[in-house]
Amino acid sequence: MANVRGEFSSRIGFILAAAGSAVGLGNIWGFPTQTANNGGAAFVLVYLILAFSLAYPAFMAELLIGRYGQANAVTSLQKLSRTLFQKRFAFIVGFGGIIFASLILSFYGILAGRMMSFAIEPITQIAGLDAISGWVVTDSLIRNLFFTASFMFLTLYIIRKGVKEGIEKWSSRLMPLLIGLLICLIVYVFTLEGASVGLNAYLNPDFTRTLDPNLIISALGQAFFSLSIGTSTMVIYGSYISKKENLISLGAQVTLIDVSIAFLAGLLIIPAMYVAQAQGVAIFAEDGSLISGSNVVFVVLPSLFSSMGAVGSIVAFTFFVLMTIAALTSSISMLETPVSYVVERHNMERKKASMIIGGVIFIISAAIISNVEVLLGLVITIATEYGQPIIAMLACIFVGWIWHRNEILKELQQGNDDVENSFFWKVWPWYVKFICPTAIALVFIHYLNT
């Protein structure tokens, strides 16, 4: 029996789900960390420029492919193909995105599991369970396996429910909660000593650093990772959008929300780091780099929370719940990418497909955990620094060079009759055909040569 495809029931449902996919640890954790490591406000400025000039056009290309195809990533791309070569090329692009989404989820689950464990620690402290408090924040094989499995279970629970009752329903609940918690924490941190120094570092750029090639590469990678580009995720979400919706405005709104929440996360994390520094916690080395690197969330901020006394436990709990929610809204989209492929291409029941694929990804996570010093960095590099830019570039090539311009226009006109006269239509087709693939390729080649 054929599986019935789901569809987002409302415009706001899609916006929250797609924004949830885009808004994850890449925004709440990765963006502030990258900002602190790459010149503060200079990185923010370059990130904002690249997010709208390169990431948004590529994001729109993936959404368009999905809504036109109304199917999983591979099938949607193959519907645009006319020759055998193009169909094989479509399979490589679509299935490549599925593989990289699965790899990202394999390490994402580990990091999200750590967020869950640190959220539990304040509760166990208040309850006087000192032994458990120590265990949940101490790095160990059993701890990491347990919380990674717990996070994967939450992701599986949502995906098993399908599009409307799973992805849309839970994204609509979690995203407002995430934004509310983020704003509350920002307001609180701004009242603390040292926050104004951090705010100045975050908002006043050193324009000489904006041309630093390494900063540009980091900003581009951050823009692509935070928008879930190059993982076929947005192809899938695009396939669940009604033909009646204006795709251009939807894509712009999701991009704006994603960038805004990344900016808000910086307003929280960067001032919080300087608050910690004002209280005697070492943040930066002599060369200006972060002492704790990407572990700043697990090392520096807990030290800050501990120095706050009783209120610190509440702040710590709220912060790590925020991080867990951000991770969950992204992980459900990553798991949906391979699940939708198996459900549609192999006619497998959704619950069964979810369990099998979730189990395989957890096994990969377990392998990473067992040799984290070698495998974690390797998988992150392969998936985010190599995989995502390449797949995003190939998707732009597909839309720009293989998909006929008249067919693209017809797809955009569904939900937007006057699109042919819009600024978007006058610029985007040639932009995604020439500028996006060339710019991504140049940045990627430069990265390989450094």
Automatic annotation (TrEMBL):
Transmembrane segments: 12-32, 44-68, 89-111, 141-159, 179-203, 215-238, 250-276, 296-328, 355-380, 386-403, 430-448
Keyword Transmembrane: yes
PROSITE patterns: NA_NEUROTRAN_SYMP_3
Membrane topology: Multi-pass membrane protein
Pfam families: SNF (PF00209)
Main location: membrane
Places the protein is found: Membrane
Membrane recorded as keyword: yes
Keywords: Membrane, Transmembrane, Transmembrane helix, Transport
UniProt-listed PANTHER family: TRANSPORTER
NCBIfam families tied to this protein: Na_transp
Name of the protein described by the UniProt record: Sodium-dependent transporter
Organism: Thalassotalea psychrophila
